[in-house]
Amino acid sequence: MLDKFTKTPFGQRVLSNCIGAHLTELSPKTKLVIMLGMGAGGNYVEECRRSFIASRAQATWRQINEVAYWDGRLAVVHTEHFKSQGALLPNWLSGDSHPRGKLGLMAREAVEGALGTTL
Predict the structure, then answer these.
(1) Given CA atoms 17, 19, 20, 22 in this order, what sign does their dihedral have?
(2) Distance in angstroms (rounded) separating the CA atoms of residues 66 and 21
(3) What domain of life does the native source organism fall in (predicted)?
(4) I need a surface site. Which of 20, 40, 42, 100 has the fewest CB within 10 A?
């Protein structure tokens, strides 16, 4: 979803309905949801986080880092979208050699935590 779209009332309803329909009642075996995209300045991460909190309100959510959050059972991790244009994906994959690469490292750490160790 495009950044500007999630800022409109219609976009907010679409995002909320999507999470409510597809991500609210997950199997207890589901420990990780990967979201493609982060938005400009992380705004898509924040919008999705708010929608998860609203649709899974019985849970206590905690921010793991700039690209990940969890409710004690389910971790949600945002990655660079595989169809990103230009240098976004290479920068995200660069590790410490680019500021966006730090977000990639944070995502990797959150995924590893969700699949193995305590977050």
Answers:
(1) positive
(2) 25
(3) Bacteria
(4) 40
